[in-house]
Amino acid sequence: MTLTPEQQAEIEEQRGTTRQTLRATSPGMEAHLYTAYPVLDHGLVRVIDYMGDDEAICQAARVSYGRGTKSVQNDEGLIRYLMRHWHSTPFEMCEIKLHVKLPVFVARQWIRHRTANVNEYSARYSILDREFYIPQPEHLAAQSVVNNQGRGEALSGEEADRVLRYLRDDAMRAYDHYEEMISDDGQQGLARELARMNLPANIYTQWYWKVDLHNLLHFLRLRADAHAQYEIRVYAEEICKIVADWVPFAYKAFEDYRMGGTTLSATALDCVRRTLKGEEITQENSGMSKGEWREFEGLMR
């Protein structure tokens, strides 16, 4: 990760300034505020602002039941109940605003989560930096033979060297032409909004991304999963660490019920019941397709 002296000075100034407030704060999140956490080779994640904590989730839930419920059910138990029964509104009471620096091809995957507010660095007004994501050799992999959108074995030897050389050389060449096209030294210079189309998808962009906790957890459930693409998964894993300190009760319940749990179809649940009764279940008598059965077997191992 590369931070300019100006960016580093801004972060130090922000972390060095304290303000009195009457609003609820999370000590765990206060420790993360403004700190830039490196991701990939030039990327970063940092918290710009947040609202709410575990208590805000409970407060929102209890407003439906009136006074007196606090003594009946503790905060952690209530949050686990809400997570277990797929309640959403109480978790929407918490929000977070992140500054993220990420490759464009990761951003295009990320933006598919349309439940956030986003403001991205504009290449129409500003000039993008000469920073590209170049994978580490261990992350260069062939196309998976069983998954049309996944990776297989890592490339090795001369093929890996050749691919890395292409990625570096093509990115640098495209940026050289980008700089040449927008230059006004002895020429009119192409508009930035047009010149940017020649840049590769591994160039870095930046944005502010604001999202409520309910939708953030949905993002993390998909993108921090072991099957997610590595380049977006590492961002999700970094955000997971932040959320765990921000709302520890909610994150613990999320790990238990969403990341560590699963949802069974009625057919799969019937197979579990039949197995517990001693019946031998096969794909042929399960009522499942081959794909469903393969996933079911993976869960039951």
TrEMBL record:
Its EC number is 2.1.1.148. Its cofactor is FAD. Pathway: Pyrimidine metabolism; dTTP biosynthesis. FAD binds at residues 89, 112-114, 120, 212-214, 218. Binds 4 FAD per tetramer. Each FAD binding site is formed by three monomers. GO terms for biological process: dTMP biosynthetic process; dTTP biosynthetic process; methylation. It catalyses: dUMP + (6R)-5,10-methylene-5,6,7,8-tetrahydrofolate + NADPH + H(+) = dTMP + (6S)-5,6,7,8-tetrahydrofolate + NADP(+). Keywords: FAD, Flavoprotein, Methyltransferase, NADP, Nucleotide biosynthesis, Transferase. DUMP binds at residues 109-112, 120-124, 196, 223. The active site is at 223 (involved in ionization of n3 of dump, leading to its activation). GO terms for molecular function: flavin adenine dinucleotide binding; NADPH binding; thymidylate synthase (FAD) activity; thymidylate synthase activity. InterPro entries: Thymidylate_synthase_ThyX, Thymidylate_synthase_ThyX_sf. Residues 1-22 are annotated as: Disordered. Homotetramer. Catalyzes the reductive methylation of 2'-deoxyuridine-5'-monophosphate (dUMP) to 2'-deoxythymidine-5'-monophosphate (dTMP) while utilizing 5,10-methylenetetrahydrofolate (mTHF) as the methyl donor, and NADPH and FADH(2) as the reductant. Belongs to the thymidylate synthase ThyX family. PANTHER family: FLAVIN-DEPENDENT THYMIDYLATE SYNTHASE (PTHR34934:SF1). This is Flavin-dependent thymidylate synthase. It comes from Poseidonocella sedimentorum. The gene is thyX.
